[in-house]
Amino acid sequence: AYKRFSELLPKEERENACSARVPKGQILTLPELRANPFQHRICRVFSTSDSGDDSMSFEDFLDMLSVFSDSATSDIKSHYAFRIFDFDDDGTLDKKDLEKLVNCLTGQGEESRLSDTEMEQLIQNILEESDIDKDGTINLSEFQHVVSRSPDFTSSFKIVL
């Protein structure tokens, strides 16, 4: 992990990789993130940068690797998946978050975009299945409940670095 992290830094900064921050643009060059539809959200969630530039320290990088590793628990994976899918960082998945989630998964092209009616129906179906307290949003515990019933979730939520 240290080798992968330090290789993202300019040569002159590699000696001090433990105290350096890798810019988001460099993190996004990782082959495993390059094609990931949630690449920007992943950087946002794992970055501890005070400046909001989504750069990563070595600790941030290790946190990301550990969450996406095979040995991470389903609870840890679902917690971070929830944070990645919570686009407005308000602690719930509302209709806007779900729409962005669906668009990320289906692609942004005209041929793959759902119609307004299809999107509304899909979001309604997701909420009917997941929104246990019927408040129109999905909170972390509701999300984890749904994930616990999906054994494929853990294996599909990983990046091999």
TrEMBL record:
<keyword id="KW-0677">Repeat</keyword>
<protein>
    <submittedName>
        <fullName>CIB1 protein</fullName>
    </submittedName>
</protein>
<keyword id="KW-0460">Magnesium</keyword>
<dbReference type="Pfam" id="PF13499">
    <property type="entry name" value="EF-hand_7"/>
</dbReference>
<dbReference type="InterPro" id="IPR002048">
    <property type="entry name" value="EF_hand_dom"/>
</dbReference>
<dbReference type="InterPro" id="IPR051433">
    <property type="entry name" value="CIBP"/>
</dbReference>
<dbReference type="GO" id="GO:0005509">
    <property type="term" value="F:calcium ion binding"/>
</dbReference>
<dbReference type="GO" id="GO:0000287">
    <property type="term" value="F:magnesium ion binding"/>
</dbReference>
<dbReference type="InterPro" id="IPR011992">
    <property type="entry name" value="EF-hand-dom_pair"/>
</dbReference>
<feature type="domain" description="EF-hand">
    <location>
        <begin position="73"/>
        <end position="108"/>
    </location>
</feature>
<keyword id="KW-0106">Calcium</keyword>
<feature type="domain" description="EF-hand">
    <location>
        <begin position="118"/>
        <end position="153"/>
    </location>
</feature>
<keyword id="KW-0479">Metal-binding</keyword>
<dbReference type="InterPro" id="IPR018247">
    <property type="entry name" value="EF_Hand_1_Ca_BS"/>
</dbReference>
